[in-house]
Write a structure and sequence with these properties.
alpha+beta, binds zinc ion, 39% helix, 18% strand
């Protein structure tokens, strides 16, 4: 079996902390889509039915996503309102921006988070299997060793306290054959 532990690098504590923080900053719990044909509305709602995301008009011909406001967590507002330059691309800010709102960041990274966490689970399971096999080998070794001692009868069954053979009466170093 291929040893995954040598091919996959463990997730660093820093990365785990990053993912944890990103998730903690996002709206907690399970989210669900609420699409209402009668009012032509679409929303992503949280478990307690607050809006994570919905859509609204932007100008005459466009649309934007509304999400929980970065400043006022009771409001939803267009994410274009506090859009920021892409990391390392300030010089492109005139034509493309991104959102740093917690839920927006979490949504954008969710796929990568799942990939990385699944890889870590696979690595840990492989590591766990390897350790379990190793432990079983030790147990089998210990059992064999224990068997060798229990299979060997006690000295006193063959020789008396002075070391003489019960059967031939000779000292145990010169008794040969009685107990083989
Ligand atoms: Zn003997």
């Amino acid at each position: 079996m291929a040893n995954l532990t040598t091919t996959i690098t463990p997730m660093t504590e820093e990365r785990r902390a990053e993912i944890t923080a990103c998730r903690a900053a996002s709206t907690p719990g399970r989210w669900y889509w609420d699409i209402r044909p009668r009012s032509n509305s679409v929303s992503l709602l949280s478990a307690n039915h607050s809006t994570v995301l919905d859509a609204t008009r932007w100008g005459f011909g466009g649309a934007t996503i509304r999400m929980i406001d970065a400043q006022n967590h009771w409001l939803v507002s267009g994410i274009h309102e506090d859009a920021e330059p892409h990391p390392g691309r300030k010089h492109h800010a005139g034509w493309t921006l991104t959102s740093r709102r917690p839920d927006a960041v979490f949504i954008a990274n969710a796929g990568v988070f799942v990939d990385e966490l699944l890889e870590e689970v696979a690595r840990l399971q492989a590591e766990n299997n390897r350790l379990e096999n190793e432990a079983q080998q030790y147990v089998r070794g210990a059992q064999k060793l224990a068997q060798r001692f229990t299979d060997k009868p006690a000295f006193s069954e063959y020789y008396d306290a002075a070391g003489n053979c019960h059967r031939c009466g000779r000292f145990f170093t010169v008794c040969n054959g009685c107990h083989e």
